[in-house]
Design goal:
- The protein has 270 residues and is α/β, with parallel strands linked by helices.
- The protein has helices at residues 13-22, 30-40, 45-57, 62-77, 88-91, 104-115, 126-148, 169-184, 233-241, and strands at residues 2-7, 26-29, 81-84, 95-101, 160-163, 191-194, 218-223, 226-231, 247-255.
- The chain has a nine-stranded mixed sheet with strand order 2-3-1-4-5-6-9-7-8, with helices on both faces.
- Helix 1 crosses helix 8 (169-184).
- The chain is globular and about 55 Å long.
Length: 270
């Protein structure tokens, strides 16, 4: 079965996809195509992204069409391919669809450090990098809605939403493979996993069942990409003590986090 890996900028999706390549998957990256086109024009990725967005508003979707057609063909003709692509989940529907989320502060740190060695992207500071990432993601959201009528940042589109803020690419790759096996066995259709360390606990005490009760689930509310514990305190504390890297969660509520909020978790609310 093919795997489509996507995620917010700086989430580490490309690193994870390349590890999966080492595990026997054929690797397909549309991001490389986009970056190459930008470099050929002497533009940064953000500048090229803006031009593509402006061209799309005039009805010119040539760049998107080229990438989309390639993804559709590969997804239809081949098996055991890992796609490192924004929209492969849409154009290769018979795949295990993964979205990797990351705290925006951590994402900007990663991209800023990488940009010091890159020719196509450079920023004066991490703060400037973070602003550019948020702006670029908003541009992508607008363009994809206009062209395809889809919300790329709607987490309800994916089989597995998994966090990489406090996890290595190797840990993510292994977890994705483990969850793929569970998905193929029919254990779930849609699942969200967070790093226990990123879940904030409220100052008030939370009702919970006994720590030994396996029926307890971790429930969180989300606002602007920040997750706050609503239930399952004992289970979360146990996971932190055991240094578990990923825990399944249920999203019980979500709300707009302001101008820097771009991900939509309403599709994950239960």
């Amino acid at each position: 079965m093919n795997i489509t890996i996507t995620g917010n900028l700086g989430s580490g999706k490309s690193s994870v996809a390349k590890i999966l390549k080492e595990r026997g998957y054929e690797y397909s990256s549309t991001g490389n195509v986009f970056r190459q086109l930008a470099m050929e024009k002497g533009l940064s990725v953000e500048e090229f992204n803006r031009l593509v967005n402006e061209a799309a508003s005039r009805g010119d979707h040539s760049v998107d069409q080229m990438i989309d057609d390639t993804t559709t063909r590969i997804g239809r003709e081949r098996d055991k391919v890992v796609f490192d692509s924004r929209l492969a989940w849409h154009f290769a529907p018979n795949s295990f669809k993964v979205f990797i989320i990351t705290d925006i502060g951590e994402a900007s740190r990663r991209v800023f450090n990488d940009s010091l060695r890159a020719n196509s992207e450079s920023y004066e500071s991490q703060v400037a990098c973070q602003k550019a990432l948020v702006n670029r993601q908003k541009l992508e959201t607008v363009r994809y809605k206009e062209i395809y009528g889809i919300d790329y940042y709607d987490m309800g589109n994916y089989n597995l939403v998994i966090e990489s803020t406090d996890a290595s690419p190797d840990e993510l790759a292994q977890e994705i493979l483990d969850r793929l096996a569970d998905y193929q066995n029919g254990s779930f259709d849609r699942l969200m996993e967070l790093n226990p360390s990123s879940i904030r606990t409220a100052s008030v005490s939370l009702p919970d069942m006994a720590s030994g009760d396996k029926e307890v689930v971790i429930r969180v509310s989300e606002k602007g990409g920040i997750f706050t514990l609503n239930a399952g305190k004992n289970k979360l504390e146990e996971a932190i003590m055991q240094k578990v890297r990923f825990v399944p969660v249920e999203v019980s509520a979500t709300e707009d986090g302001g101008e820097d909020s771009f991900m939509n978790f309403t599709g994950m609310v239960r």
